[in-house]
Specification:
10 helices, 3 strands, 227 residues, Four Helix Bundle (Hemerythrin (Met), subunit A), Arc Repressor Mutant, subunit A
Length: 227
C-alpha cells in the first residue's frame, strides 16, 4: 500500500473517510482485499475511534463489509448489487421528476443538453473522465432540484459505487452512444412538458437492468460475479 498523507487534528473521522475513499477510487484497495486497520491507524497517526467511524460509514454506503472474525473486507460488486442499484437509482430519479419536475426551468433542461453535448464530444476525444463528469452533471441538473437532501445524497453514493469503484478507464462506445441517445429522448420529453414520459424513460429504459444488461455484463466483468 502506498504511504498515506498526514492529517491535521480537525474532523479526523471525515478526513480518514476521505483518505479511504481515495484509496478505493484509485485502486490502492482492491475488491476482496482485507484492510489492515492497524497499519492504516499507524500511518495516519490516529486512534482506532475515527478509523472505526470511517469504516462504519463505508459499510453503510456499501463499499466494505465488516466480518467479525476476518476483519474489514473491500466489497466486490455482485450482479445482485448492480441490479439493486439500477432499480433504486431509476426509482429515485423518476420520483424526482414526477414529484418536483414542475420546478425544472428552461435553464435546467438547457444544462442537460449542454452536458449531453459534452459527453458526445468526450466520446470522440476518448476522454473517459470528461464523459463521466458530464454524465453526472446531466443527471444532477434535474435530481439536484429535489428538496429531499437525503435522497440526493443516497443517489450520489449509489452512483459512486457504480462509477468510481471499481473504476475502469475505457469505454464501451456502443453503450455510451446509446446512453446519449436516451438522454436526448429524456430532454425532448422535458421540453414537451411530459414529466411522466421523462420519468418512464429514466426508470424503465435508462436505469433498467434488463435493458442495459448486455452492456453491464461487458463493462463490469470480471468484477461482476453472480450472487
Amino acid at each position: 500500500m502506498a504511504s498515506l498523507p498526514q492529517l491535521n487534528r480537525t474532523s479526523l473521522r471525515e478526513q480518514v473517510y476521505e483518505v479511504l475513499r481515495d484509496y478505493l477510487d484509485e485502486g490502492h484497495l482492491q475488491p476482496g482485499e482485507t484492510i489492515n486497520l492497524d497499519a492504516i491507524a499507524a500511518q495516519l497517526e490516529v486512534s482506532r475511534t475515527p478509523l472505526r467511524d470511517a469504516i462504519l460509514r463505508l459499510e453503510t454506503e456499501g463499499f466494505v463489509t465488516i466480518r467479525p472474525r476476518s476483519g474489514v473486507v473491500v466489497r466486490t460488486l455482485t450482479e445482485t448489487d448492480i441490479r439493486n442499484l439500477y432499480q433504486m437509482i431509476g426509482a429515485l430519479e423518476a420520483s424526482v421528476l414526477l414529484g418536483e419536475g414542475h420546478s425544472l426551468a428552461a435553464a435546467h433542461v438547457q444544462a442537460m443538453e449542454q452536458a449531453n453535448a459534452q459527453m458526445q464530444a468526450a466520446l470522440v476525444a476518448d476522454d473517459f473522465d470528461g464523459y463521466y463528469a458530464a454524465n453526472l452533471k446531466l443527471h444532477g441538473a434535474y435530481t439536484d432540484i429535489s428538496s429531499n437532501a437525503e435522497l440526493v445524497r443516497h443517489l450520489k453514493t449509489m452512483k459512486q459505487r457504480l462509477y468510481d469503484f471499481p473504476r475502469k478507464r475505457d469505454f464501451i462506445k456502443e453503450w455510451e452512444l446509446a446512453s446519449t441517445g436516451e438522454h436526448d429522448l429524456i430532454v425532448a420529453a422535458l421540453k414537451a412538458g411530459d414529466l411522466r414520459e421523462a420519468a418512464r424513460l429514466v426508470q424503465d429504459v435508462h436505469w433498467s437492468f434488463a435493458v442495459q444488461e448486455k452492456f453491464i455484463r461487458r463493462y463490469y466483468l470480471p468484477e461482476l460475479e453472480s450472487s
